[in-house]
């Protein structure tokens, strides 16, 4: 039983990683038999993994004909941002009320250095992405509400997938960094209304940029693809759905990987 549970966990992490990196593209058909053969495990743990992915919203039924990777469309991107706006504006307001000021003062100082970081001849985008992760983590800690944090974590899972839509856009990165600084300024000042308003403006601009990327590079829907496919970005994923979603994937190019039966966790699989 323990071995079966372990296999199910490994299958879940592998498939989740492939979906977030677009190795399994939106609309890809997920056939248990094919996935079982490719992953080198029985169909039962594959079925369990797919059930968890359905619960995550990353996989959905296809009219009684099996399961597919949830498609990406302007409509569901907009719906996701409606939820994101509700959660993140409240989180920013709560953070302004409950924050530990020194934590956000430190973030404030780092964000002030971002323009120089991003305009260097060798832009420090990865350093900025790390800062965005810490920005999210600081807000999660400040709100002191595990239910809100859990909801935000679910939203960020989907935002990580949207990141693959975006092309490298230094101008949007810089704009997003300035927007983050305005949010942090409001939190440091203990101004809940301004923190919420700054977050609302940031998300409106982020949505516009994301929809623009979707229009410019719409995802293709394969007729059948339960194996890995080329992805418009690298294969890494992280917790944040913020600056990286607003601007660009970490690096252009495809995301190929060698697949072997699952005896150890797949390299790069995100932790839960």
UniProtKB/TrEMBL annotation:
Could you tell me which residue ranges the HTH gntR-type domain spans?
5-72
A single Pfam family, by name? GntR
Record InterPro entries:
GntR_C, TF_FadR/GntR_C, Tscrpt_reg_HTH_GntR, WH-like_DNA-bd_sf, WH_DNA-bd_sf
Which molecular-function annotations from GO does this UniProt entry contain? DNA binding; DNA-binding transcription factor activity
Give the record's keywords alphabetically.
DNA-binding, Transcription, Transcription regulation
Stretches of Pro residues bias are at 263-272
Positions of the region Disordered? 212-272
The UniProt regions of compositional bias labelled Low complexity, in chain numbering, are 227-256
Report the protein name in the record. Answer: DNA-binding GntR family transcriptional regulator
Organism (species): Herbiconiux flava
């Amino acid at each position: 039983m323990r071995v079966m549970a372990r296999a199910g966990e490994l299958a879940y992490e592998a498939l989740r990683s492939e979906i977030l990196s677009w190795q399994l593209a939106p609309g890809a058909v997920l056939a248990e038999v094919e996935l079982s053969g490719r992953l080198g495990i029985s169909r039962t743990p594959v079925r369990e993994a797919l059930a968890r992915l359905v619960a995550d919203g990353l996989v959905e039924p296809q009219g009684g004909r099996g399961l597919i990777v949830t498609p990406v469309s302007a409509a569901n991107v907009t719906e996701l941002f409606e939820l994101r706006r509700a959660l993140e504006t409240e989180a920013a307001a709560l953070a302004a009320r409950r924050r530990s000021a020194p934590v956000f003062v430190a973030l404030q100082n780092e964000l002030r250095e971002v323009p120089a970081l991003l305009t260097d001849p060798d832009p420090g985008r990865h350093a900025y992405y790390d800062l965005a992760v810490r920005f999210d983590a600081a807000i999660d800690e400040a709100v002191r509400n595990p239910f809100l944090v859990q909801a935000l974590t679910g939203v960020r899972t989907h935002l990580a997938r949207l990141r693959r839509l975006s092309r490298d856009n230094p101008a949007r990165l810089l704009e997003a960094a300035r927007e983050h600084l305005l949010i942090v300024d409001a939190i440091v000042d203990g101004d809940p209304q301004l923190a919420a308003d700054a977050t609302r403006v940031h998300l409106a601009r982020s949505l516009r940029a994301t929809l623009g990327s979707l229009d410019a590079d719409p995802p293709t829907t394969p007729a059948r693809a339960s194996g890995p496919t080329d992805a418009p970005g690298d294969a890494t994923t992280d917790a944040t759905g913020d600056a990286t979603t607003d601007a660009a994937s970490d690096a252009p190019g495809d995301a190929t990987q060698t697949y072997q039966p699952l005896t150890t966790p797949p390299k790069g699989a995100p932790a839960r």
